[in-house]
Design a protein that fits this description.
263 residues, alpha+beta, seven-stranded antiparallel β-sheet, 5 helices
Length: 263
């Protein structure tokens, strides 16, 4: 027998319920296992809110989307949209050409329409147009058409510049220009041709060329070099333009380019 064991014939000592004294057990376990009344009520209150959010998510996923918003069609035919440099197969693929303005057909086969000019001079391979703008100066627009042979858009631009503006200084390449809705190559140049009295004035020449079905069309816009911010409210409310030439501000230029039809 040890001091920790009761006598063999005696029962394990007990005390009546409620008697003060040493108690054996784990009083914390009861507190952990049974949540308080406040936490139980909070869980009951949160459950409907969670079910409501879940229901909204399910409805949003299963609901049929409504019709697309109505959009009025464009009134004017724009250029084709595609990867720059890809050839448009036909004129009709981009829509009909512009039909406003005076009609001109070159002996070489291409045609165009232009807004009435101060002077229009037909040549053996194109047309030269002069526009005298009120109080702001004169601009020129020339269009030529001929067999392309082995020439490319880039080589055609370079040849025209070499033949007519040997001292031209390239300024920038035009971003994806179009001639008759066909991809073209274009570049802006600063030139300083000598006048009859020997003086020089810096001018801007915009030269673009496009080839299609073995035929080439070259367009040249030329005029005095303008400041980047135009000082005349006659042109687009003084908006700046990197073209820096009168013809680039004239709405008739875009119309003419969009009216060109290759043979």
């Amino acid at each position: 027998m040890t001091i920790d064991s009761p006598p063999p014939d005696s029962s394990w000592p007990t005390a009546p319920p409620g008697t003060p004294g040493l108690k054996i057990g784990f009083p914390g376990a009861h507190e952990l296992a049974t949540p308080s009344r406040l936490r139980h009520h909070a869980a009951i209150a949160i459950l409907p809110a969670g079910l409501g959010v879940l229901l909204l998510i399910i409805v949003a996923l299963l609901a049929t989307p409504g019709p697309a918003p109505h959009c009025n069609p464009l009134k004017c035919q724009g250029p084709p949209i595609g990867h720059p440099g890809q050839t448009v197969p036909t004129q009709s693929a981009a829509g009909p050409a512009v039909v406003s303005g005076a009609f001109y057909r070159s002996p070489t086969g291409f045609s165009l329409r232009y807004i009435a000019a101060t002077r229009a001079t037909a040549t053996s391979d194109g047309i030269n147009l002069t526009y005298a703008f009120n109080t702001v100066g004169t601009g020129w627009l020339d269009v030529f058409g001929f067999s392309a042979g082995q020439s490319t858009d880039v080589s055609l631009v370079q040849k025209l510049v070499d033949d007519n503006f040997p001292s031209a200084q390239p300024v920038y390449q035009m971003p994806d220009p179009l001639i008759g809705y066909h991809p073209a190559f274009g570049e802006a140049f600063n030139v300083a041709p000598a006048s009859s009295d020997g003086t020089t004035q810096t001018s801007r020449a915009l030269v673009a060329a496009a080839t299609y079905n073995g035929f080439a069309v070259v367009v040249v816009a030329f005029g005095p070099l303008l400041p980047t911010v135009n000082t005349s409210s006659q042109f687009y409310d003084d908006h700046p333009s990197p073209a820096n030439v009168y013809m680039a501000y004239f709405y008739g230029t875009d119309s003419l380019l969009n009216s060109i039809v290759f043979p």
